[in-house]
């Protein structure tokens, strides 16, 4: 499998060897700050972005590249196909497969899912307690 790496070298703040990411086809953008605890687990095809353009100038007026780091805490689980950009994933948190976590902080011991990622469950010390699912107006109309 051909490695997919952003510009830059794998920093010392990443607690896994390069082969771990290559085997899982994980893209790690190493241009901005990135920290991945050695006990965190990542699925296949995860994308970790650490820089973006400043869009404050308005539509069609792309500004300079600005760093926004990614931090993944101890014991966190990142599902396959997840996009992480400018975020912090707390200790023991789970990000469900296919989710997008952008500019968010995921608290320790919670499970998030979706785009954008939302809390769907919390760890109470013994088990996962799932939160009630919000029904959209569209789904209410279909009932």
Largest sheet: 6 strands, mixed
- What is the N-to-C order of secondary-structure elements (H for helix, E for strand)? HEEEEEEEEEEEEEEEEH
What is the averaged pLDDT score?
A: 86
* Second-tier CATH architecture: 3 Solenoid
The global form is globular
Under CATH, the topology can be stated as UDP N-Acetylglucosamine Acyltransferase, domain 1
| Number of individual domains | 1
Count of DSSP H/I helices: 2
- According to DSSP, the number of beta strands is 16
How does the helix and strand content classify structurally?
A: mainly beta
The CATH class assignment is: Mainly Beta
Low-pLDDT stretches: none
Main sheet: strand order? 3-8-11-14-15-16
Taking all Cα atoms into account, the compactness measure Rg is 17 Å
The CATH superfamily is known as: Hexapeptide repeat proteins
Distance between the termini: 47 Å
> What share of the residues lie within helices?
under 10%
């Amino acid at each position: 499998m051909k490695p997919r790496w952003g510009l830059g070298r794998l920093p010392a703040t990443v607690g896994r060897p390069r082969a771990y990411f290559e085997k899982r086809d994980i893209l790690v953008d190493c241009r901005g700050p990135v920290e991945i605890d050695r006990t965190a687990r990542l699925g296949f095809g995860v994308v970790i972005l650490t820089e973006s353009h400043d869009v404050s100038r308005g539509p069609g007026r792309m500004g300079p590249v600005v760093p926004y780091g990614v931090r993944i805490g101890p014991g966190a689980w990142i599902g396959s196909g997840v996009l992480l950009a400018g975020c912090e994933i707390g200790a023991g948190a789970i990000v469900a497969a296919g989710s997008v976590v952008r500019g968010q902080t995921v608290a320790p011991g919670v499970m998030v899912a979706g785009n954008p990622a939302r809390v769907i469950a919390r760890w109470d010390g013994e088990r996962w307690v799932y939160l009630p699912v919000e029904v959209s107006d569209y789904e209410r109309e279909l009932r």
